[in-house]
Amino acid sequence: MKIIYNNIIPSKGFKCINLFGVLFARKGAYIGEKTLNHEGIHTVQILEMFVIGFVTLLPFVVFGLISPWWLFASVGTFYYWYFIEWLIELCNYGTTAYHTNTFEREAFDNDDDLTYLATRKRFAWWKYL
């Protein structure tokens, strides 16, 4: 996983953020094996959500209902779902919404298991819905 250390992304108060499989980390932040595994789980989730978005939009393109340019929107499917789920959870759980998110629950439950990514079933986050 590519790690870019800087003082801009993520904002102050956060150690790192995974954007499309690239880990942006605050300068001087310690990124250990557990964090790398956690973010690696997110990277796989991002790829799986891309596939879901692409497959969902493709029939609309094939039948001429939308422009092929809309397929680029599938790149952000993980982030759309994450944000909508976070907003819903924010209403229900307040400041703990981050920890009740489907993707975060899978990542936190398995970030100690450094072999998880090798044995993980596809779309494993689904069982956390």
Attribute tags:
mainly alpha, 5 helices, 3 strands
Would you write up a description of this structure?
- There is one protein chain.
- The chain has a 3-stranded mixed β-sheet with strand order 1-3-2, with helices on one face.
- The protein is built from 5 helices and 3 strands; from the N terminus they run βββααααα.
- By secondary structure, it is mainly alpha-helical.
- A hairpin with a 2-residue loop joins strand 2 and strand 3.
Beta content comes to 5-15%
DSSP strand tally: 3
Element order: H for helix, E for strand: EEEHHHHH
The class by helix and strand makeup works out as: mainly alpha
Q: What is Rg?
A: 16 Å
Instruction: Determine the mean pLDDT.
Output: 97
Shape: globular
Largest sheet: 3 strands, mixed
Distance between the termini: 27 Å
Instruction: Pick out the low-confidence regions.
Output: none
Oligomer class: single chain
Q: Numbering strands along the chain, what is their spatial order in the largest sheet? A: 1-3-2
Total of DSSP H or I helical runs spanning 4+ residues:
5
Helicity level, as a percent range? 40-55%
Provide a brief overview of the structure:
With 129 residues, the chain is mostly helical. The protein has helices at 33-62, 77-93, 97-100, 102-110, 116-119, and strands at 2-6, 16-19, 22-26. The radius of gyration is 16 Å and the shape is globular.
